[in-house]
Amino acid sequence: MVEPILKWAGGKRQLLSEITAQFPADFERYHEPFVGGGAVYFHLEPERGSINDLNDRLVTLYEVIRDRDPEDLIAENETHEHDEDYYYDARDEFNDLHEVDDKTDDQRLREASLFLYLNRTCFNGLYRENNSGEFNVPVGRYANPDWVQAERIRTLHEVLRDTTIHNEDFEYVRGEADAGDLVYFDPPYEPVSTTANFTDYHAEGFDKDDQKRLRDLAVDLDANGVSVVISNSPPVAELYEEYDQFTVTVVGATRSINSDGDNRGEVAEVLITNVPDAEKRRTTLSEYN
Ligand SMILES: C[S@@+](CC[C@H](N)C(=O)[O-])C[C@H]1O[C@@H](n2cnc3c(N)ncnc32)[C@H](O)[C@@H]1O
């Protein structure tokens, strides 16, 4: 079990046991089409499968960790400084590198290292871009940020060895997942009250049509014998009501990144799955002994 390497909005560390309790006790390969900071993937350490995210800088980081000697990235990380001017220079360099097409391996290593450094030292660990795609989060205030992450990089290098990494829309998994595989979807969403309707529901960047595309994909995967678990906002459960193969469980979550740092209350989320109760990990004998 390895801790996530990044701070990431919507990170699932608090819900790990509730999410993985929905997983089947046995499955072939594991796929995570909205991997983000990868709390569930890293917790599970699956031997084979795929991860994906639309964020190309995030994907570059995971590819560099998988494909390079981990000591190269660790050494690059050790060159950074805990200083405000250094932070803004690093942010400029990170944004300039993003504009370079066909990067060399060393430019990709540098981009990955800058991403880790900025993620660990920026305000609240946020990831935000302006309209031109520039990362624009200001510096944070940390006494002792750890952007080197040596042990996690070494472990993750091993865990990612047989994982395919994609940088595209989540629907890639239609072609990637086979019968017997498990797909865990954690799309962008805002947890809200359980009483809201899907028609009133809005999440920035991932709209109702995307939620319907995700539902249609889940239905197709189910028909192909793939196990599916989806984290989502309570109103979205309406979309699955007419499909008997899916069950919905409401769970509480403590937000790890919040615009209001004092307001870390419980918010409802749902887990939607086609995994029958009898096949879930939580019903294995060892859990009762
Ligand atoms: C809620 S976050 C996932 C958080 C993750 N489970 C964790 O523990 O950190 C959702 C992720 O989906 C990505 N994303 C947004 N739209 C997408 C799309 N259409 N296809 C694939 N990924 C997308 C975002 O970049 C973001 O990293």
Structure in words:
- The chain has 289 residues and is an alpha/beta fold.
- The protein is built from ten helices and seven strands.
- The chain has helices at 16-20, 39-44, 56-67, 70-77, 84-98, 105-121, 150-159, 173-176, 208-223, 285-288, and strands spanning 30-32, 49-52, 163-166, 182-185, 227-232, 247-254, 266-273.
- It has a seven-stranded mixed beta sheet, sandwiched between helices.
- Helix 3 packs across helix 6 and helix 5 crosses helix 6 (105-121).
- The longest helix has 17 residues, at 105-121.
- S-adenosylmethionine is lined by residues 8, 10-12, 33-34, 36-40, 52-55, 169-170, 186-188, 206.
Domains, number: 2
CATH domain class of the largest domain: Alpha Beta
**What hetero molecules are in the model?**
S-adenosylmethionine
- Count the beta strands: 7
What series of H and E elements makes up the topology?
HEHEHHHHHEHEHEEEH
- CATH A-level architecture of the largest domain: 3-Layer(aba) Sandwich
The percent range for helix content is 25-40%
Helix tally? 10
CATH level-four homologous superfamily name of the largest domain: Vaccinia Virus protein VP39
CATH topology of the largest domain: Rossmann fold
| Cα distance spanning the termini | 22 Å
